[in-house]
Amino acid sequence: PLSLVWLRRDLRLDDNVALRRAAEASEWIACAFVLDPPLLRGPRVGPPIVQFFFDSLGVLRERLRQQGSDLALLEGDFSGELVRLARRIDARAVFYNVDYDPDAVARDEGVERALRAAGLDVHAQTDHVYFGARDVLQESGKPYTVYTPYRRRWNARFDAEPHPPVASERAAGPKLLARDAIGATCEVPRPEDYGHASSERYPRGGSAQAKSLLRAFLTDEIDTYAERRNAPALDGTSHLSPHLRAGTIGIRTLVHTAAKRAAAARGASRTGIDTWTGELVWRDFYQQLLVHFPRVAHQPFVEAATAIAYERDERRWNAWRDGTTGYPIVDAAMIQLNTTGWMHNRLRMIVASFYTKHLLGDYRDGERYFERHLADADLAANNGGWQWSSSTGTDAAPYFRVFNPTLQGEKFDPDGAFVRAMIPALVKVPSMYVHQPWTLPPLLQAEYGCVIGRDYPAPIVDHAEARKRAIDVYGAALGRR
Ligand code: FAD
Q: Tell me, what's the ipTM?
């Protein structure tokens, strides 16, 4: 029989569970992807992620064509398109990998029903997480809501029952349906076709790019990850997040590459590798929360947090969004996001804390903004990160923790290399002032080309006052729990 593999957030041929299962069960395989115009034009995606997915679809199609096959690229209603293709090529089954996003779950239930009603067998697999949401539970069967015990259990399962990468490309290669039999389907679109402006500066998609980032990270960075990961100027992280989002590299490949390396490592380098693997486990942790507590997609995890009295002030919102708050580390971070479609993790924590605590903004507004501007925008990790920062989430920062943006800058960007790279007005400002340029004496401001109010804004809020206000407002909702 012939099977369709419906690709979604798994745009690769290797280490792909659905593709592997299809290869085991079928004589022939065709790979399909369905473009969803309302999603592509809607508010939940922005240019960097759309460009990344289209890039990756192009690379995937090329790879399939090199093997004499093709990517069946369809556009429109999922079940209608898949059923039409299945009838045309006489497919009997559809294999796909599950997505935990509550909207995707609801959509997939409907699609599955329609496919079955059309006489197709449907097989859903776990692929985008290392352990599925029901694989790592407490003894009582309840889900974990705290990371550290989750990780302990995750490690124990890993030791007992590892899931090595699946050799799906090798298994499926000889079974891929010929290009003529698939027939003509859509061209890979450009972001502009759906109203998004593309940019050379956004992360580049495709499996080959993912592998080359991994290689570079293994060569230069993983051993020192624990020490260097918090410094945005050092750029000591893998940049694999958009690839994990679009599935251009498999999570099993990453976990097992790190585990093999850790087995041979000692001392600091072992710590670096374990710390990095811990981040991949954070990813699984936030993914499983979405399955067990889907309400977090719209509501704070901590119910008392619904009483927080947020403020929405357009002037402050615009300053945060545009990187003109007057706090260099916050502004440089937002400029990085707005221009490159990616932001360093430490900076995500700083700007999220600043928006929710200093400006008393609703974390959901910040979360939505990130969703439209990150190439790695992912509901689970984004929501988890925002709810952590705003003290509304599971295992979150305590509500009275309010990052001091000046001290954060001085600690993680000590010589100002990162803020200078993003903000031209700070280039000449000496390091001791670079994270608080408003304290420069006026004569020096002129000398260094950083006159406050002309070349660079004055801080929009005073840190000490804002901190006190945040603790009062958050404390009123969360303080007496
Ligand atoms: P590395 O440091 O190399 O880490 C490796 C991988 O581990 C990452 O690619 C990512 O898949 C995963 N990871 C790392 N940190 C986390 C984390 N805290 N939570 C979950 N997974 C993690 N990550 C996203 O992938 N998409 C998002 O939309 C997203 N939004 C965030 C919003 C906020 C407010 C915060 C604080 C964090 C957010 N993160 C998000 C997590 C993290 O910032 C990024 O995954 C990381 O910066 C990506 O860079 P990297 O690939 O170089 O990471």
A: 0.99
